[in-house]
Amino acid sequence: QVLPPLGDLDDKEHIHQCRLHFDLRKKYRSLYPGACSLVYQHLMQIVTECLIGWNTKTKTGRVGVLGKPLAWSRTDEEQARKTLHAHWQIWIEHFNDCRETLFSDDEEERKKARDIFIQYVDSVICASYPDYTVAHVCEVGDGKETTPILRTQPVSDLFKECE
Questions:
Q1: Partners of 88 in the beta sheet?
Q2: Most-buried pick from 33, 52, 72, 153 (CB within 10 A)?
Q3: What is each CA distance from 68 to 59, 106, 121, in whole angstroms?
Q4: Is residue 70 within 8 Å of 95, Cβ to Cβ?
Q5: In the 3-class helix/strand/coil scheme, how is the chain assigned residue by residue?
Q6: For residue range 117-150, what is the model confidence (pLDDT) as tens digits?
Q7: Percent of the chain topping pLDDT 70
Q8: What's the mean per-residue pLDDT of the chain?
Q9: Residue 89 phi, psi (nearest 5)
Q10: Which residue in 114, 124, 126, 115 sits closest to 66, CA to CA?
Q11: What is the reported pTM?
Q12: What percent of the chain has pLDDT over 90?
């Protein structure tokens, strides 16, 4: 079974096709929950080893997208819609230093830490949607009078402009 191409989200036929495919996937998830669980566990192994950077054989970490993990814990849950999801707790080497500067009493230190953190996140996490525009309305003004301005650009840049 092939999923329909991503089309115009307002097109009624596209919505109908998406709904049919959703219903089909829902039917198979209900019929074969064990298969879904196996696929989910494989995906979680990829996340653990490739993104988090945890070697499951040696129980040691290497630098992943969040930094070098020292330890981690994951709880898997099933929602009423029969979909699995995970809650993670990950201990990252030197993260206390990062947290302390992000919540420093010194405003300049906080801003510098925030900029460094955003730059790091942008360097390790990326999504590309060629035909998709992110729109965000932020209030610009002196506090007494504000003007809503529509921005369409990368999300990290939007947050910088809306400060």
A1: 74
A2: 52
A3: 12, 27, 14
A4: no
A5: CCCCCCCCCCCHHHHHHHHHHHHHHHHHHHHCHHHHHHHHHHHHHHHHHHHHCEECCCCEECCECCECEEEEEEEEEECCCCCEEEEEEEEECCHHHHHHHHCCCCHHHHHHHHHHHHHHHHHHCCCCCCCCCCEEEEEEECCCCEEEEEEECCHHHHHHHCC
A6: 888 888 777 666 555 555 556 666 666 665 655 5
A7: 69
A8: 78
A9: -130, 120
A10: 124
A11: 0.56
A12: 34
pLDDT band at 158 (very low <50, low <70, confident <90, very high): very low
| 140 CB-near residues (< 8 Å, 6+ apart) | 146, 147, 148, 149, 162
Burial label, 110 (beta-carbon count in 10 A; 0-12, 13-18, 19+): middle
Residue 149, amino acid: I
Pairing assessment for the beta strands 84-92 and 69-78 based on DSSP bridges: antiparallel
Distance CA 73, CA 71 (A): 7
